[in-house]
Amino acid sequence: QVQLVESGGGLVQAGGSLTLSCAASGRSSSSFAMGWFRQPPGKEREFVAAISAWGYNTYYADSVKGRFTVSRNNAKNTVYLRMNSMKSDDMGVYYCAQRSAASVATSMNDYDDWGQGTQVTVSS
Question: Tell me, what DSSP letter sits at residue 30?
Fold first, then answer.
C-alpha cells in the first residue's frame, strides 16, 4: 500500500505563489497517475490537476488553468503543484491522490490512495 504525504502548504498573499509537494512511499508511483484535489472551507472536495504516469499528460480544472502547474519527479517519487497568481478562491485543504492506472482522471472515485492534506490560506 502506498502512503502519500503532502507538504508545502501555508499562508500566502493574493497574487503570490506556493509549491506543494506530495511524497509517495510504499511502492513506486512512476507507473501511476497522480492527482491534486482541494476542499475549500464549507465546500466539497474538487479536482485541481492531474498528471499521468511518467508525466506525458496533464489536465487542469478550468479555474486553475494557466496559473497552476503539476509536475512529477519519478526518481524521487514526488509530485508537485506549483501555484501562481493565487486568489482567495484557491484557499482550502489540498490533497494528493494516486490512481491504480496510468492515465489522468478528474473524479475522486478514480483515485485509490489519498494523503492527509495540507492547508493553503490566501490572504487578501
Answer: T
Which distant-in-sequence residues (6+ apart) come within 8 Å of 4 by Cβ? 22, 23, 24, 96, 97, 98, 113, 114, 115
68 phi, psi to nearest 5 deg: -105, 150
Spatial neighbors of 38 by CB under 8 A, at least 6 apart, are 45, 46, 48, 90, 92, 93, 94, 95, 120
Four-residue CA torsion sign, 123, 71, 51, 85:
positive
| Below-70 pLDDT ranges, the chain | none
* 23 three-class SS: strand
Question: Which phi and psi (to 5°) does residue 9 adopt?
Answer: -70, 170
